[in-house]
Amino acid sequence: MSFSTLGLSTPILDAIAELGYSKPTDIQKNAIPAILSGKDVVAAAQTGTGKTASFVLPILEQFNQDRTLRGKRIRALILTPTRELAVQVEASIVQYSKNLDISSMAMYGGTDIDEQKQRLIWGVDIIVATPGRLLDMAHQRALHFDELEVLVLDEADRMLDMGFIEDINKIIERLPPHRQNLLFSATISDEVRNLARRTINRPVEITIGKNSASKPKIEQWLVTVDKDRKSALLSHLIVEQEWQQALIFIETKHGAAKLVSQLEKRGIAAESLHGGRTQQVREQILSEFKSGKIKFLVSTGIAARGIDIGELTRVVNYDLPDQVDDYIHRIGRTGRAGAEGEAVSFVAKDNFRNLCAIESRLGHVIERKEFADFPVRKTVPVSILNYVPKNKRT
Ligand code: AMP
What we know:
The strands form two sheets. The protein has a seven-stranded parallel beta sheet, with helices on both faces. A seven-stranded parallel beta sheet has the order 10-11-9-12-13-8-14, sandwiched between helices. By secondary structure, the chain is α/β, with parallel strands linked by helices. Helix content is 39%, strand content 17%. The protein has two domains: 3-208, Rossmann fold (3-Layer(aba) Sandwich), CATH 3.40.50.300; 212-368, 3-Layer(aba) Sandwich (Rossmann fold). It has 15 helices and 14 strands. The relative contact order is 0.12. The structure holds adenosine monophosphate. Adenosine monophosphate is lined by residues 21, 24-25, 28, 47-53.
């Protein structure tokens, strides 16, 4: 089967031929005709199956038939769990739409909001966004959904794992009822099914590949620990659990240097990454971390922000972040593309409020593990899941 039998027109066929795609993948064969016929779709498909093109190509085809766009309006919204995925999906849209007059933009937190607002003033056909930033924009009336035609929930299971359900619900409430809904997920768990049931009308269901049961799993767990035992506990875990790699988040630059020397005293080689280092040094450290030359990298949140560290097996919140979004973003760095990921948090009594905020967002408490050699003097109570921090936006 070739792409030309799927109902795509020449400018799109030319663009994908240029990318060297000779024939459609299974998900593309199934999803493209269904989406072009206007149906809702729920598809179990992982990264690597060609899922992005399976929803982007038919969206482009439909939009190319009918060009209307007003300022501050969008026609398609693609929600993704992480900024990295948003950037990646938007880059694919740019490639697939190179022969069309269709605009797209990736929108995620941590970047200049005014620049994104400015682009929205003219209207953008397709937005690829993480849920939090999109809601901010909607609250600020920087964009309106009254002309939205298509909603895509990409990697829905990961979005739910990362506690985005409330944000997704708030977004969906704002969308016009007559729209096309497409949901892609590595696995269709009960939670995903629930979301699909509430969001999607009589969908075409597609399951692709034997791997669809192995979801990219982020195992989150925490250990309560007294502040003065944190570095000993970290060394213990690295040795006892035979960790091969970890990105360790810490609050301050000074703390990072101190922890590196504490680890080294115990025979564990580590490096630190913080804003005080030049861009060139940071790039060098990161590339050595990616290649595995550096196994344990202690980083301040700021230093790691905006840098694509790619696929990670483990992140450690040596210091729990103050902001729930930072926690979500950090765990989003693990468990990519079917790989197992682990997010470990050290929680001291002072972190109790933060922990409540994080677990409230996730909608569940995080599994606690205990280590006999590290009994705590200051117990951390179990969270109140409906905790609302004072500064939380409404
Ligand atoms: P995805 O599952 O969307 O992350 O895509 C995985 C990779 O497959 C990407 O690098 C795409 O560029 C590539 N790809 C998607 N569709 C095709 C195709 N029909 N033929 C060859 N490569 C493809």
